[in-house]
Design a protein that fits this description.
This protein is an all-alpha fold. It contains three helices and no strands. 81% of the residues lie in helices and 0% in strands. The longest helix has 32 residues.
């Protein structure tokens, strides 16, 4: 039974890293296409950083503490980037 639980946790950690990597690709795409101009460049750059931190999860899967720290950091960066995009779109540039 514990093997199933460990597999489920491993899948959850990989899914968290994949979400961060996806938003990193969205950030890179927005920067390359030119949609991230002015103040939108800052949250897009944060999303790119979140993608890089999420990608760093895969080489460190054997080190539990480092893996958890990377996943927490990538999740926090994704949230900060998305909140920044919403703030720029609604508050700063109405």
């Amino acid at each position: 039974m514990s093997d199933f639980q460990e597999t489920a946790y491993g899948n959850l950690r990989a899914a968290i890293a994949n979400v961060a990597i996806f938003f990193g690709f969205v950030g890179v795409f927005g920067i390359v296409v030119g949609a991230a101009d002015g103040l939108r460049l800052i949250p897009m750059s944060v999303l790119v950083l979140a993608g890089l931190v999420g990608a760093a999860y895969y080489p460190t899967r054997g080190q539990w503490k480092t893996t958890v720290r990377l996943l927490v950091a990538s999740s926090a960066l994704v949230v900060i980037g998305l909140v920044g995009l919403v703030l720029v779109a609604t508050v700063v540039e109405p």
